Amino acid sequence: MSRTEVEPIRRAVLHALDLAEEDLYRWSKDLSQEELHARPHNLPSVAFQLRHLARSLDRLLTYAEGGSLTEVQLILLRSEADPQGTSEEILAELGGALAATRDRILAITSDFGEVRHVGRDRLPVTLGGLLVHVADHTQRHVGQAITTAKVIAALRQKD
Predict the structure, then answer these.
(1) DSSP category for residue 65
(2) Is 28 within 8 Å of 95 (Cβ atoms)?
(3) Contact 89, 49 (CB under 8 A)
(4) I need a labelling partner for 44 at 20 to 30 A (CA). Which of 24, 82, 111, 133 fits?
(5) Rg of the chain taking only CA atoms, in angstroms
(6) DSSP-based helix, strand, coil % in the chain, nearest 5
(7) pLDDT tens string 67-81
(8) How confident is the model at residue 23 (pLDDT cuts 50, 70, 90)?
(9) Residue whose C-alpha is closest to residue 61's, from 33, 97, 12, 36
(10) What is the C-alpha separation between 91 and 29, in angstroms, rounded?
(11) Mind listing the pLDDT tens digit for each residue in 43-53?
């Protein structure tokens, strides 16, 4: 299915994911492992942003598909800020999550007006609203990752 055959809401989310992937790789691929985990000025690390994006996409799509989070997803949520993992591992997790997210979004056949429930409190949202949130949330964390990467680059130049 080409992107022009995809309805506007789904197409916009897929486009946001494409832009996110491009920007995240551009700004993180040259960071050393130490820089990837660095928290300059107490900012969340780039590694955290990449892991959070990968794992939150899985959680949000679970809700979009009408499911509830698993214990594994909750364990992964609690470990997002842990300063571990190589650049290759973290970027591979992100790449895999983005590819899986695209596939999952394209596989959704429900009406965008259908109600889904999010979180422990099972807050009601529409499927369309939840998919738009996937795009918004992704772009927010892309911006935060880029900001941290720019601070790291500026600090690198001072040395």
Answers:
(1) T
(2) no
(3) no
(4) 133
(5) 16
(6) 70, 5, 25
(7) 999 999 999 999 999
(8) very high
(9) 97
(10) 8
(11) 999 999 999 99
